[in-house]
Amino acid sequence: MIELKSPTELEAMRAAGLVVAKALADVVAAIRPGVSTAELDELAAQTIRDAGAVPSFLGYHGYPATICASVNEQIVHGIPSRTQVLSEGDLISVDCGAILEGWHGDSAVTVAVGTVTPEDQALSDATRAAMEAGIKAVVVGGHLTDISHAIEESVHATEHASGTTYGIVREYGGHGIGTSMHMEPFLPNFGKPGKGPRLRPGMAIAIEPMLTRGDEATEELADGWTVVTADGSRAAHWEHTVAVTDDGPWVLTAP
Ligand code: MF3
Ligand code: CO
């Protein structure tokens, strides 16, 4: 069963999404060489609590922080730390979720620390473009995997245009969201269109492609959370929470 939200409930989810957008904006504004990912975590927690919301990651299956801060070859679920201090040229993905009046928002951005190589910037741009292509496929009457397919096709289009290849991470993907962070359906970031449930008004889906500059193989570190590329290549992650409406996609976590 996929949770369907009424228009009023989607308004409430939008409010939650705006809290996440504000928390991410505050984190992004603080990203610079010398800042630790633990400091970024504190900023996000403060913004969320000031808005009367609750961090959704904190305590989720025992996760110890408000954000995930994944640096360079870390793909997702990097745990913020005092000892992880950002350096010029790092590429960091920040993922954040909040609960406001019972409704969840979930969003991620990838940010250059100072200046990164053109290849790293292109990786982040390709991942963001793939997310945007997925969002455009959020159409009433379409199928879930139309989104998956649009993401994969966007990556291939970027690869062909640039003469680069990217790994599309397979083990992780998007998900339904609403009264919980992770709900049905799971959304792969690749695959054939026209499969899975039909998209109906009131569904909400977190769309979150993860790309690497190498291949798609991942490993989990001994901390039980941090997911890294097996080949050590850098990764990027972009995410928005998107509602299906008769007027098209509504990006609930857009500022
Ligand atoms: N935000 C991640 C996702 O997009 C989930 C984070 S898991 C947590 O699905 F444990 F860190 F919360
Ligand atoms: Co998510």
3D architecture notes:
This protein is α+β, with helices and mostly antiparallel strands and 255 residues long. Helix content is 30%, strand content 26%. It has four helices and 15 strands. The protein has helices at residues 7-30, 37-50, 118-136, 144-162, and strands at 54-55, 67-71, 74-76, 91-100, 103-112, 167-168, 174-176, 183-187, 204-207, 210-212, 218-220, 227-229, 235-237, 240-245, 248-251. Strands 8-7-9-14-15 form a five-stranded antiparallel β-sheet. Strands 1, 2, 4 and 5 form a four-stranded antiparallel β-sheet that branches. It has a three-stranded antiparallel β-sheet with strand order 3-12-11, with no helix packed on it. A hairpin with a 6-residue loop joins strand 11 (218-220) and strand 12 (227-229). Helix 1 packs antiparallel against helix 2. It is globular. The structure holds 2-amino-4-trifluoromethylsulfanyl-butyric acid (MF3) and cobalt (II) ion. Cobalt (II) ion is lined by residues 106, 175, 206, 208, 239.
